[in-house]
């Protein structure tokens, strides 16, 4: 047998986050506890499916009219509409004026990647500033999407709080037009969030510098217990009439980890621009995964449409 053409391939290290789960699964200790991926568990450490998700799935299974056809490239229309309302607010002028385009993506990670690739193709500034520290996958996602990653100060280990002055200084010295990644709430990994007053200062600074906000909303409802309160940072930026991007994940707040349900919303100045942006998002998605999965988005839509 000839040598493999892949003999030169080096074994890659485990992902620092998901690798913890690999180690956990290999460990034979009866007292092991997995602190790798943040996920709901029972008292016995078993995976937990929320009762509201069980109810939604049952109603979907019992509906004989449901089929398994492909979704459109941008996903399930009702899911997209309800996701935009959940993060922007149902009474948001941006939604009422059709200035928000939303596409269903593969959870938060896929939403970030689609947004990153869109910016790399169509935005004039290729630099994105991300907080130090941040979720370990952020720099990889944006680098591979074609953006140049830089950092701004965020966490102060001395106070175990926000380095607000450092944040303002770093964003203040960023080049005009740069993209800035912001955690909408429940900052990962520190859990430290700006106050409402600090968010307002961040908003004023970013708008004055024409910095483009890109929100990562992976924990809406987890920080305060209120979906509306946890969306306040995003809604402040949407309400001022400026543009921004928002990546949403339903992995955590609905416990839909394996369903990979997410959305990318881009708030634009006009409905005409939003339509053109959506047409280009389709060109990003089509050669990547063609169209998103149906089941998880149907669960989310079933829940969000029922008060």
TrEMBL record:
Q: Is the keyword Transferase assigned to this protein?
A: yes
How is the subunit organization of this protein annotated in UniProt?
A: Homodimer.
Name any cofactors this protein relies on: pyridoxal 5'-phosphate
What superkingdom does the record give? Eukaryota
EC class name: transferase
Its lineage opens with:
Eukaryota, Viridiplantae, Streptophyta, Embryophyta, Tracheophyta
Q: What else is known?
A: In eukaryotes there are cytoplasmic, mitochondrial and chloroplastic isozymes.
Keyword entries, A-Z: Aminotransferase, Pyridoxal phosphate, Transferase
Protein name in the entry: Aspartate aminotransferase
Q: Which family does it belong to?
A: Belongs to the class-I pyridoxal-phosphate-dependent aminotransferase family.
InterPro entries referenced in this protein's UniProt entry, alphabetically: Aminotransferase_I/II_large, Asp_trans, NHTrfase_class1_PyrdxlP-BS, PyrdxlP-dep_Trfase, PyrdxlP-dep_Trfase_major, PyrdxlP-dep_Trfase_small
According to UniProt, the reaction catalysed is: L-aspartate + 2-oxoglutarate = oxaloacetate + L-glutamate
Keyword Transferase attributed: yes
Quote the EC number. 2.6.1.1
